[in-house]
Amino acid sequence: MDLIDFGLIVLRVVATFALLLIVTPLNIWAERKLLADMQNRVGPDRAGPWGLLQSFADAIKLFFKEQVLPTKAEKWMFLLAPVFAVVPAFLLFMVVPWGAPLTFTIDGVERVVPLQGTDLNVGVLFVLAMSSMAVYAVVLAGWSSGSKYPLLGGVRATAQAISYEAALGLAIVAVVLYSSTAGDSGGGTLSLAGIVERQSGTLEAVLPQFGAITQFIPRWNLIPQFVAFVIFVIAAIAETNRAPFDLVEAEQELVGGFHTEYSGSKFLLFFLAEYVNIFSMSALAATLFLGGWNGPTFDSILPGFLSAAMPTVWLLIKTYVIVFVFIWVRATLPRMRYDQLMTLGWKRLIPGALGWLIVSALVIGIRRFGLPFV
Amino acid sequence: MTLNDYLPLLVMMVLALVFVGAAVLISRIFSPKRPTVEKSAPYESGILPETEPAQRFPVKFYMVAMLFVIFDVEIIFLFAWASRFNDLGWYGIGAVAIFTAFVLETLAYVWKRGALDWNVKHRARYMTAADREAA
Fold this sequence. Notes:
A: 374 residues; B: 135 residues; Methane Monooxygenase Hydroxylase, Chain G, domain 1
């Protein structure tokens, strides 16, 4: 660890940060445009070509708007809530791997630069921890506003987020469990880079007896862990408070939910955190289930620097497929009732995820260790 | 694995905090500050608030919080098991099966007791005599 290593870390962090700050407004634009298309409207089309700069314009506008501090608000908690929204959102994105580690030689010293914020060996747990932290933002914002709608929205959001976090966690356990089938390690891996690595190659490694078909199918967790994938995506939509689970900010009954009293740049921060979370959750779904950055790099056709960038391009494509699903679901499904939301979470997803985990453990166990008591 | 792996997270945290601080401060410089009594009052769709926000909440929310703790602990143990799955073999699967059975039993109990029913129609005190007969 010397100054160059530290410089590389800062470079990586700044690059991640810049990527998020550029991509998030574009995602908001993409969502508005797609929703408009699905609802037979035009959508934003004034700021920049095809309205591309609309979100940037909105952000700049919000900087010039008055920040109202409600008289009944707890001042410091009110100020702290957007911090709790933004910081975990950015931190969560740091563990998503965007390619295989690069090796450089600078000053005669070999340096390995992972194409991800940081490769934690407990990456999966870190993801769960950060998505739990995001709940604090909602609770603090709802409670400190000293107003009825934010409080109701905050309490609803908390119950919803913790309910679906259990389902989200169980779906991820199934993935970690399944990653124990690759390699000859002691078990599954909690590192996201490790999970991606264990999805490389084709399904032939798992089912060699059907080699004629399986050699053309990538070894993504999507196929063996399809049930976990469905649970993960549903729980991720609920975790990010998106339609059809957007009871938190149900406009018709709660005005704006937990951020009703927020205005100006503090509202902007909540909005930013929400869309960063959508992007991170989609990237995570792609990483855990769609093979992450695995994909053909076309070494022989493309020039070197392009084929080196292909893994990142693959993950971006996969991420945007999931982002599209998020938007598509929002345009298609009406908002659920609160009792339906809780029923789905506690009576369907959690027992379903636990059952699926038991089935996975038994199947993987029989394939790995043979039948017990024989 | 060293603490160095967490250094990028620390740098990101500092960067994010600086960003949040800058966003609030810059906007404070450029934005107008003209508070009025009506503007700073809690927003209630234009109606003057007469009562405080609710101080009491349905006990179900607390039930959900407690259930969540049970399941979160379960998940943490499951992660530990999944990351040593091959070493533990059938012994691990058996142990986790017993543990999971107890958690599922908890879920079955609260399910039967109606702690997961949020629809008021299913609540005993909203039931009519006819409902009780049907149930």
